[in-house]
Amino acid sequence: MQSDSRWLLDGQEVQSSDGAFVKWYDHTYFLLLHKGKKFHGEIVKDDSENNQLTIKINHRVFQVKKRGELDELIASLGLDVPKIKKLKELTAPMPGRVLKIFVKEGDEIQIGDNVLSLEAMKMENILKAEGIGTVSKICITEGDVVDKGAVLIEFA
């Protein structure tokens, strides 16, 4: 695959297809002809400085990015991989009462998973995982009153 034919479409690498033709109506609207079919398009957002466009084709929105030499260098250095926080412990962000614990020891949790609910000032707050980890120890039980900063759950 040549570097001038690699594109990212909604984050997935695709190769440009021979035989596609674009007819521009103005700087925003275009007609895409491919294998005898017509697709109506619009540029929703132009971020040319970063080789990126947001386009709408037949009412579907796509993120399109042209892969460049800098992108290949960043990928080869492994700098394009998002960093994932490894959890060590979950502490109480405020004083309150533990209403429900959604996890048990041994559970593997991912970013955004519900961990527990904490009632503070008559409001229920769902504490979600801000990283990944395996629950190694639950330091509280449902109904416990905890202080701000108290360790609630430990992770391995």
Describe the protein's architecture and organization.
- The mean pLDDT is 86.
- This protein has a seven-stranded antiparallel beta sheet with strand order 2-1-7-6-5-4-3, with no helix packed on it. A four-stranded antiparallel beta sheet has the order 8-15-13-10, with no helix packed on it. Strands 12-11-9-14 form a four-stranded antiparallel beta sheet, with no helix packed on it.
- A hairpin with a 2-residue loop joins strand 1 and strand 2 (12-15).
- It is mostly beta strands and 156 residues long.
- It folds into two domains: 3-76, no CATH class; 89-155, RNA polymerase II/Efflux pump adaptor protein, barrel-sandwich hybrid domain (OB fold (Dihydrolipoamide Acetyltransferase, E2P)).
- 5% of the residues lie in helices and 51% in strands.
- The chain has one helix at residues 69-76; strands at residues 6-9, 12-15, 21-24, 29-34, 37-47, 52-57, 60-66, 89-91, 96-101, 108-109, 114-120, 123-128, 133-138, 145-146, 151-155.
- The relative contact order is 0.14.
- It is built from one helix and 15 strands, in the order E-E-E-E-E-E-E-H-E-E-E-E-E-E-E-E.
